[in-house]
Amino acid sequence: MSSSDQPLAGKVAYVTGAARGQGRSHCVRLARAGADVIAIDACGPVAASNGYEPATPQDLAETVSLVEGEGRKILAKEVDVRDAEGQQRVVAEGVEQFGRLDVVVANAGVLNWGRLWEISAQQWQETIDTNLTGVWNTIRATVPAMIAAGNGGSIVNVSSAAGIKAVPGCGHYCASKFGVVGLTNSLAVELGEFGIRVNSVHPYGTDTPMGNDVSMYEMFAAHPNFIHSYSPGALPTDSLAAPNLISDVVVWLASDASSLVTAAQIPADKGYLKI
């Protein structure tokens, strides 16, 4: 393959929430672009209020098989992003095995529903701890290795359209994803001197277990005025977006094709944010 076919040849990527959905798609696409992969997923229950089933060890094993099918190597571990020391151990093992770290995709996240004054303290905390503190843990685990390697690199934080345009029914999720934007922009300035770029991606309506959570419709049934905040977007929308379409953006941000882009919020939303 040519360098244009494999823009990440010789590089190593770390992906969280890798067992299925967007995380699995990111792993496979990064591998197809030439990168070896370090992958983690909790592979079990993460938030009690989630309306969708958690990922399993079998899901992560399937991700491993798919990455290997692309001809790349992968180190995969069952680690929750809330486990800061666990992430640090996996990164250290991955760098020892592969020799470097160039790309980080902080993808792991949870989404559940409820009005802000009615959700429990547990529901709030599990969402913030996974979606925001989990990203911070990922940054703490990976940035020192990237700086030490001296190769620059790219960090891609997966936020949400709800991290730019707040919506009703999941204010705790919005707060966590808005927080990811603040973290992203500050980190981009701090890491600029090391040639490390930091950007956030903002999907909307993605075909994953989270995106297909039917408990969302229970919220709409109870509060029908909320649905007006969830427009389909500017482009034709017949279904939820395939995860690989988000991965197109992730691979671009990971590659030198986006070398001028840092501290940016990249929408992957069919124009929803402008409607």
Automatic annotation (TrEMBL):
The keyword Oxidoreductase applies. The keyword NAD applies. Gene3D superfamilies: NAD(P)-binding Rossmann-like Domain. It holds the Pfam family adh_short. CDD domains: SDR_c. It comes from the Bacteria. InterPro entries: NAD(P)-bd_dom_sf (IPR036291), Sc_DH/Rdtase_CS (IPR020904), SDR_fam (IPR002347), SDR_subfam_1 (IPR023985). One of its GO terms (molecular function) is oxidoreductase activity. Keywords: NAD, Oxidoreductase. Belongs to the short-chain dehydrogenases/reductases (SDR) family. This is NAD(P)-dependent oxidoreductase. It comes from Mycolicibacterium hodleri.
